[in-house]
Every structure is written in C-alpha cells, then in structure tokens.
Specification:
homodimer, Aldehyde Dehydrogenase, Chain A, domain 1, Aldehyde Dehydrogenase, Chain A, domain 2, 2 domains, seven-stranded parallel β-sheet, 14 helices, 21% strand
C-alpha cells in the first residue's frame, strides 16, 4: 500500500473504532488499562531489548548526544513510571457520559450538558517513548481513538509498546484500531496525516518548537499547542522579600530547560533597590547570567544590558532578563506585549493588586505567590498531561483527560413542543 | 487607504481595544449597553430611513423577493425587539472574571479557573441587520472586541446602527474601536479579514450554507459554524403515541426553513404500523410531502420512495423522509452515518433506551421527548444566540455569551515552590 492509502486507511480505522471506544463503560475501559499494565510487566525484556536497538541505531547517527539518549532511554525505573501513570489514569473518574448542570426552563424542558470524547486524536511526537503509553491510556479512558506518530529514532520501542496496547484491547474484545501506531518512518506521512480533517478531530504535537511550528502551518486540523514559554515573575512593591526570593529562584533555577521556567523578571521600582542585590547573590550561586534594563544596571553594576530581543526570547537556559517598571499596570503591559500566554506570576501581599494582575493578565496560567514551575498537569491534579495549550479556544494551559472531551447539550422533556 | 491596509488597520484597532474592553467592570459594560438602548430610541427615525434606502436599492436588483425584504426590514417592532434583546444581555451576569472550582493540591497551592473573553471576534453575516446589535451587545458584555462585516444590501442600516454603538461607547469614555463596522462592500475584504489570524481569535459566519462553506475554506482562523441541520426524531417502540405525534409534527412543521427542524423521522418497526398512519394524516393537513424507505411504503402506500440522497438532504421545506429500523441501535447508526451533528431526538417511555440514545448519539444537542425546535439559545436560557456550532472543539450547540469566553488557570499560593 502506498503512503497515501496507508494513512487514509489508518484514519478510516480510527474513525470507525472511535464510535466503539466512545460508548464503553468505565469498568470496561479500566479493564483494558489493567490488562495494559500486565502486558507491560510481561514484556519488560522485549521493551528494553527494542529500546537498546533504538539507542544503538542512534549512536550511528549525527544526532547522538547524551541528552538525546536520555530522552530515548527506557529502563526498569521508567517502565515502573509508565505503569504508575496508567494506575493514576485508572483511578480517575470516567470523564464522559455524566449529565451535569441540569436547569429547568420556563417552557418546561430541562437543559443540561454531557461530556463526550472528541473523537480521533493524532499525536505527533519526538523521542520520549513514554508518550506512547501516556497518550494511549489517556485516550482510552476518555473514549477517544488515537493515531500515534512517534519519532523514527524510537520506532522499535514504540512498536513493542503499541503491541502491548493492542494485546490489552484484544484481550478485552475491543477493536484494536482504537490505538494505531504509524509504523512507517517517512516524513511525508505527517503531511498526509495533517490533511485528514474529515477523520481527525485534533492534532497534538509534542517536541521541539520547529516541529510544532511546521505542524501548525501544514495542518488543516485544529492543533493543540504552545510554541513559547516566555514566563514572567513580577515582584510588586508590596511583596514579601523572602517569598519573592524563593519564588524567583525556584522559577528560574529548579529546571531551566522547561517551558514553565521564568525567562523575565519584572520588578517594581519601589522594591528594586532592596530586592535585586539579594537576588543577584543567589542567582550567582546558581550560575545564572543576568541581562538587565538600564535601570537594573543602575543597581546591579555588573550585569549585561538587555536588548529588545531579550524580552521576547525563551532562553531555556541559565539566563534571566530583568526589567524595572513603575507599577503593576506596567508589568501587565510588558507581559501583554512580550509574553507568550503561557504562565505569569505576581508576588505581592497586596490583595487588590494581586486581583488586578490575576484578572488582567490573559495567559493560560496566572499565579499569585507561587513558582511558575507549578504550571503542570500533575501539579494541577489533572493526571497525566497530554500537552500544554496557549490557544484561545478549547482547553487552555496544561491539558489532561478533561481536555480530550467536550460538552454536548442534553434536553429532557415530557412531550414538550414549541 | 487600499483594502489591505484598511483591513489591517481595523484589526490592529480591534486588538488594542480588546485589552480595554476585557478589563472593564460589569457595571461599566452595562452602562454602555444602557446608553445603546437610549441611542437606538433617539435614532429610530434615522434607522428606519436608512433601512428604507436599503430596501429601495434592493428593489432595483435581481435579489428582490419578499423573503429577502422580510429579512432586511427594520420597523418599530423590530427596533423594540433589538432593545429587549439588549435588556436581556444587561440582565445577564458578567461572564468574565470570576474564579471558580478552586481546589487545594497536596503541594499547598490552590488551583482554580477564571473565565476570560476570547479577544477579537469577526462576525460575517448577511441581510438581517439585528445581528449588528445582538452581536455587538454580546461582545461588549463578554469583554470582546468585534469586527462586523454585514451584507452589502444592509449597509445603510448597519452604518446607522453602528453609529449608535460608537456613540454609546464614547459617552462612557470607552474606545470606539471595540465595535467596528467594515463600511466597504468589496468582496475582497472578506478574504483579507480571514487571513488575519494574528489579530482575530474566532470568525462567526451567519448566513447561507454556501457563504459559510466558503468562509470555512478560506479562513486561517477557527470558524464557529454549522453547515447542515439534518435533524432526526426517533420514535422508539416504547414511545407514547400522543407525545410522538405532537413532537414529530412540531419538529417538522412549526417552522420548516430553520436548521433545527426535523428532516428525517426514524421509526422502530414494532410501533410503525400503529404510528405511521396517524402521522400521515396529520402531515397531510400540514401539506408535508413524505419520502419513505421500502418498509415505510408497505404501510403508507401513497408515499414516494426515498433515495439514498434523501437521508443526507436538509430540505428546509415541507418534505419529510421516513425510515423504519429494527431497534434503537440502528437508529443511532443511521444518525451517525447521515446526521450533521446538530440536533437529534428520541421519543420513548423506556428510561434505559433513552439513556443509551442520549449517551451514544454524538450531536451538539440530543433530546428526550422534546421537539427538535427547542435547539436554540433563548430556549436553552443562554440569552441572545451568536450562532450554532457543530464543531467538536470549543462551544457546541447554540452559542450564547458563555461561548464568547474561555477559562484560564488561576494558581493561588503563599510562597510555594517546587
């Protein structure tokens, strides 16, 4: 079969299997997930063998480096973590089928809503093979069909993992096409997939910014995505200095290469002289390079001058830009101009200023007196996270199982007519 | 200014004004809407004069027919109805800014959600000038900026109405660009608008199916839309015959040219012989033509044979297709194959069968023992309706003020770090 027919057939299979999985009971879906845990445990050696093959192949390419190997590697610890992620999803309440918010109208009808699966999800991702399991388990629990297109470098691992899923589905007499792995590695396959808006309801990319940009450009299907994580922490004049230090240091240094790390610190001029020298000292011990505005450099004499492009750069590294502003509204304006709508934080003890910031900053996560690093599906109690969205429509912020569903209207009558 | 620059400038104005309207208090937004009512009352004669001009121009074109004039006409009664629609929107609770669903996590942070405006809406519509007022009032109350592109045939009416809105905004010292009417009638303007994904967050078309199809095809921006309303009523074997007759007749005949009218009736074989002759009699008195499957024709000897294309046709007319099925699951399969995801109804006294239908039919409205004609924003208590969506993402079904908002995450801490 040529690639075009192969993708089309995969999509047709997904669409028809999506009706079956969308109607399954919670207990049946949990049985599939329990079988999946058993299968993974049974196939531990096969999974690790296939993974070794992938890593060996990687070593022969130009892409080989330690970070890449680390993303690709599956050992017993990571298998355990896949299993515990499935267990968490089993423990989650069935996200579909419940009627909520029933209200009686003056006409006599009752109107409510019911959560439903989205339908068919296409997941396009690089390296980390645990996504194969996480995404499949989330889709099974939420009643969606999924088409998986992993990176070519993890193809052997993904094939064994998807075999485990197929086995778990078939052991429970459920259509195996609920989870389909694209086992061809040609790049043209992605283009074909992204044209299938008649079959696929949403595309979720996971990987580098360039991959996501390309997918967004090519796709005829809505893409759940974020491109940048230019996260800000604003230290208001009414901040508690100790909280401000803790939050700024944690937001910048707890992990630097992640999308919810702080990239720009905004400081109220009335607290800058007290706060910035204390911060500089701690940042130095974490080897963080500072690039400041001219006012910052009046206080911190040694730092580099930030250029305009610094305010719109996601460093993903031990670099921090700092700008001093007159007051909270200027911080909000800066975030609105340069931010990426991901996560922004205010540190203040003044309730009214906090409320203004929370209300007027339109990012997918807005925080008061907490580290930006909390912007995460697990931390928000959503269970495994399928992605983070800075879109304005559908789910915003970390997307868990609920973001894989949407609500239809339910009307209950007793023979009512208009 | 050429059309490209004109559209670009309109979009820039909308984007910058959207920040202002998004932050306004409820009382301020209501003041604007109250001023709008006063302005419309003051300008009654101007509105009617401009409307007469539009109708005179229409009479000189090939498009002239009574239905078209009826859609375009603004008289005192319709002005009163615009005003009462604004009053209803004033009475609605502010849909943005409230923090809901706060939960404390084990880390100590509290996570909740806050509704926010979408940003900039582009409304593209034909003839009915009341959309100018309804859509603008909904956007003001929900904190969105709106760009209005009405039909060229109603341009004079729309200019006077949008002047009323501008006056209401300026009387309350709010940026007039919150509501902008495109006052150029060139068709190329629409193409330009649909390319502005950096400025416009959602496009809402209102009008004929061909207009909506074209907009959906050309748009680089998400389009909130429905194309067809192929609505089904399924009469289960456990239906109460009187309710079934009432609901079928009302769904088909109360208004035939609307998207929530029934187009196909599905009948359980065990009730068909009793039900169909009674229905035929009533349909005859409403002059409804019946096209039936072969089994239907065994019972109703005079009806035409339906062809396969009948099952996927939205007649919008006094025509009904009828199919007999073995049981509820076959009805669900028929709806899944031929339906348009708009509104589908089951009539039954059997609770379990009703639950199966409500759960397994994935349309934007699914009803039990009620007329399909209830699928409407007013009937659902949403206030004025900005459109109906059969999309899988974001709002589904009738879309009111809530569908013009979305939720961001709010995190409240007390110095928490990871």
């Amino acid at each position: 079969m040529n690639n075009i027919d192969y993708v089309k057939q995969t999509c047709i299979n997904a669409k028809s299997s999506s009706k079956e999985i969308s109607c399954l009971s919670e207990s049946k879906k949990n049985l599939i997930l329990k079988s999946l845990i058993d299968e993974i445990n049974l196939k531990r050696d096969d999974i690790k063998d296939a993974n070794s093959k992938d890593i060996e192949s990687l070593k022969l390419t130009d892409n080989f480096n330690n970070a890449f190997v680390d993303r690709l590697l599956i050992d017993d610890l990571r298998i355990d973590s896949m299993i515990s992620s499935i267990s968490e999803i089993i423990a989650f309440k069935d996200p579909v089928g419940e009627i909520t918010n029933i209200k009686e109208m003056s006409s006599g009808i009752k109107v409510g809503k019911m959560s439903m699966p989205l339908g068919v999800i296409a997941m396009i991702y690089e390296s980390r093979p645990n996504v194969t399991i996480d995404a499949s388990a989330l889709c099974i629990k939420s009643g969606n069909s999924i088409i998986l297109r992993g990176g070519s470098e993890s193809i052997n691992t993904n094939i064994v993992l998807s075999d485990c899923i197929k086995m778990a589905l078939s052991q429970n007499n459920v259509n195996q096409n609920v989870v389909q792995l694209i086992d061809r590695t040609d790049r043209s396959i992605v283009n074909e997939l992204l044209a299938q808006h008649n079959y696929i309801d949403i595309v979720i990319p996971r990987g580098g910014k360039n991959l996501i940009k390309l997918i967004d450009k090519l796709s005829s299907i809505p893409v759940l995505k974020h491109l940048d994580g230019i996260c800000h922490v604003f230290i208001d004049r009414h901040a508690d200095i100790n909280k401000a230090l803790k939050i700024a240091i944690n937001s910048k240094t707890q992990r630097t290469g992640v999308c919810n790390a702080m990239e720009t610190l905004i400081v109220d001029k009335n607290i800058a002289e007290e706060f910035l020298p204390l911060l500089e000292e701690q940042l130095k011990s974490h080897n963080v390079e500072i690039r400041g505005c001219s006012k910052t450099r009046n206080i911190l004499k040694e730092v580099l001058l930030a250029s305009d492009s610094d305010w719109s750069t996601e460093y993903l590294d031990s670099i921090l830009s700092i700008i001093i502003v007159d007051e909270c509204n200027d911080a909000i304006d800066h975030i609105s101009k340069y931010g990426s709508g991901h996560t922004d934080v205010i540190v203040t003890e003044n309730k009214k200023i906090a409320e203004t910031f929370l209300r007027n900053v339109d990012s997918s996560s807005v925080m008061h007196n907490a580290s930006s690093r909390f912007a995460d599906g697990y931390e928000y109690g959503l269970g495994a996270e399928i992605g983070i969205s800075t879109n304005k429509l559908h789910a915003r912020g970390p997307v868990g199982i609920e973001g894989l569903t949407n609500k239809k209207f339910i009307v209950l009558g007793n023979g009512n007519i208009r």
